[in-house]
Amino acid sequence: MVTAFVCLACLVTRDATPESTVQGVFDSLNKHDWKAVFTRFEGAKVDVVVPIFEKLAADNAAMPKFILKMTTLTTTGDNASGPVSVGFQMGTSRSPNFLEDEVHLHRTAGDWKIVDGKGTQSIFTQLGQVARDPKKMNQTRSSAQKTVILSNMKQIALGVLMYANDNNDKIALDQSNLKARIAPYLRNANLWKGPDGKLLDVRLNPSLFGKSMTAVAEPAQCVMLSIGPKDKLQYFEGQTIIAFVDGHVKLLKKEGLSILKWK
Hints:
Layout: H1 2-13, H2 18-31, H3 34-38, H4 46-59, E1 65-70, E2 74-76, E3 79-89, E4 97-108, E5 111-117, H5 123-132, H6 137-165, H7 178-186, E6 202-204, E7 223-227, E8 240-244, E9 249-252
Antiparallel strand pairs: 1-3, 2-3, 3-4, 4-5, 6-7, 7-8, 8-9
């Protein structure tokens, strides 16, 4: 009878559905409970990877809050998958930026485990790679930092657009007053920093100083914000981050910069 009770308790602690596994990862990420995070990944070397993340959390005070939006996943036999939205929120930001992702799971011995996500930039792919091969930690850490910076740039770009909207669609800004004037639209100074706590060199395109939004011929290709000036862009794993006048943000390699419009 005692044995039966213990087994039942074990079953209760399992993730009975693929959705509870995914939600459990996010709940554990925000608690910095790394063992609970990585036990939910297929093939994870938990004893090796957990101490690495414990040290990372201790050394990095600027870790984001992770937010998950998910509907019921599609299950076929012992496999499950579906789209999710992943939000990153630094500090007390009121409006986290969500990135579209996808998660894939497999069920083994009754337990649902995450396999990977949508592409190399997916948080599920990155965590899964590290879980199975902790030596990839440095590469994955850089990718995660890039994702946070991408989210920050999106929110700063939206702040500029809201400011312009309140000023008759005019970008009544220059580099010297950019931060101060859009601060009321952001309410979070941490957006100007990377995950390492260092200030990002966010630059407003000089050709837009005092310009009307309606005067921009190709807003989807015209640079609004960059990290570093035009002739000295900053790169993260071979990619720079550009925010465009229409509000979208994109990762670009050097060979892709020819599409950019600076005027």
